[in-house]
DNA sequence: CTTTTTATAGTCCTACTGACCATTAAGAAG
DNA sequence: CTTCTTAATGGTCAGTAGGACTATAAAAAG
């Protein structure tokens, strides 16, 4: 940051890449676009695009998110900067520095190719195959980040519609972590954390479920979980 | 990432900014350089510089770290990407996208102006005053990140020399968090976390301390803390 | 030798959590 | 209508982690 004039600097292209995650059919799914040209023609890639001259990366990410998902209103969606990927050879054509973002969606409308994406669709996170560029790495980083943030933040509600049952919330944890959780314990923990969820007064979800109808909850005002909701047995416990 | 040729894109300058933190005299301190020219002439700023054409941002950050600190070997230091700042008006001269990194140092040699930094020195984190550009924000983000990572990673050892006492390790937590911790409890917790620290067989620190000499420890192979070491009373506890 | 200082060891009690079991309320099957 | 199944909800119980606190050990300072 000192003495620009004394430096020669290369101009870089700056892009954003989006790891858009949702839960469909009990599986973690990713929004991907099919590349129509070289390099990596025919391969799936994360949606993204250039940051325009008067945009911040955040603004560009939200614009791309709207274009790729076709959603009218993306202002309420969770969008979070992941990290920046800047290896000199990550794009064979030119020097591209990419700021990656992760977005979480509750429901999952099939994307209409709103932007200029050749073909966009949801694919399961497992078996999304080798992606173009370094997008496998970006996607894995996004998964790691989300899995970790579920432990100590209220992020899980970002995967849920405005009103949801505790079973749906638990499914978020189980799907992202790939583990099963004890339902009564999960329930006790979530309800004991003030501000995580709020009961919707007289509502219950009656939509075709077979068992007892579940009570509905809304996301509460809290953002952090204290104490955290740790995933079971990541490595050897202490003591 | 699709159809570069169909897009016009603006070239951006890409820089790295470094929030280099250490603990000196029981206080959290930051490495800052004094700006010699407009804008923000005379103000303190985070060290940093342009990413060169054949470098990744990580490589550039490590190069700048070596230049600014004057340390011969920075390969062992903890260097971690923080996030990227890309507001269009963050530098009044031109469009600059900056990838911010946080580095942690154990001891703190006074920086010799190795690079072209007009004047570089350690300043206390509190009272580092308003910095140039958006560097106050970057520095605050770095502090938040480090404070959070102390809870669930073994990062604290990055602030310590190769061999350290548990008292020194506790001082890291207390300094970054700005809280006091109970010494026996901290000790019990750290020693119960396998892989956090390893005892150095027959060593004790005798350097002028007044009380009982403390045993020495090394950083262990673990990187994560399970269960985490939560800082006291951030907000209202649950239940 | 006594005091001070710091490290280390141990105790007690509460809260959180994992592993269970029981009950309730719906639909499905007979 | 009764019974079975399914899922939500309510509860128990023991093990454990962690906060508060006391006690002992080993050095320097007086």
Automatic annotation (TrEMBL), chains A, B:
Q: Which InterPro entries match?
A: Nudix_hydrolase (IPR020476), NUDIX_hydrolase-like_dom_sf (IPR015797), NUDIX_hydrolase_CS (IPR020084), NUDIX_hydrolase_dom (IPR000086), WH-like_DNA-bd_sf (IPR036388), WH_DNA-bd_sf (IPR036390), WHD_NrtR (IPR054105)
Which CDD domains does its entry note?
Answer: NUDIX_NadM_like (cd18873)
Which Pfam families does this entry report, sorted A to Z?
NUDIX (PF00293), WHD_NrtR (PF21906)
Q: Which segments constitute the Nudix hydrolase domain?
A: 11-153
Per its record, what are the GO molecular function terms? hydrolase activity
- Origin superkingdom: Bacteria
Cell inner membrane is among the record's keywords = no
Entry keywords, A to Z:
Hydrolase
Does the record's keyword annotation contain Hydrolase? yes
Give the family this protein belongs to, as stated in its UniProt record: Belongs to the Nudix hydrolase family.
Question: By what name is this protein known?
Answer: NUDIX hydrolase
Organism, by scientific name, is Streptomyces poonensis
């Amino acid at each position: 940051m000192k003495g620009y004039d004394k430096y020669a600097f290369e101009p870089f292209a700056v892009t954003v890449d989006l790891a858009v995650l949702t839960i469909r059919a009990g599986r973690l799914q990713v929004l991907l676009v099919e590349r129509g040209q070289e390099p990596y023609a025919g391969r799936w890639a994360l949606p993204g695009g250039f940051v325009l001259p008067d945009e911040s990366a955040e603004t560009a990410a939200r614009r791309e998110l709207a274009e790729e998902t076709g959603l009218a209103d993306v202002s309420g969606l969770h969008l979070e900067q992941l990290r920046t990927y800047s290896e000199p050879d990550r794009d064979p054509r030119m020097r591209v520095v990419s700021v990656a973002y992760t977005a979480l969606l509750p429901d999952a409308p099939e994307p209409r190719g709103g932007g200029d994406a050749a073909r966009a669709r949801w694919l399961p996170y497992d078996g999304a195959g080798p992606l173009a560029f370094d997008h496998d790495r970006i996607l894995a980083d996004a998964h790691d980040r989300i899995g970790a943030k579920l432990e100590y933040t209220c992020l899980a509600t970002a995967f849920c519609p405005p009103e949801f049952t505790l079973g749906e919330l638990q499914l978020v944890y189980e799907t992202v972590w790939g583990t099963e959780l004890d339902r009564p314990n999960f329930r006790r923990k979530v309800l004991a954390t003030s501000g995580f969820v709020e009961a919707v007064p007289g509502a219950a979800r009656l939509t075709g479920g077979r068992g007892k109808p579940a009570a509905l909850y809304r996301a509460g005002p809290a953002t952090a979980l204290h104490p955290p909701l740790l995933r079971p047995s990541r490595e050897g416990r202490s003591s």
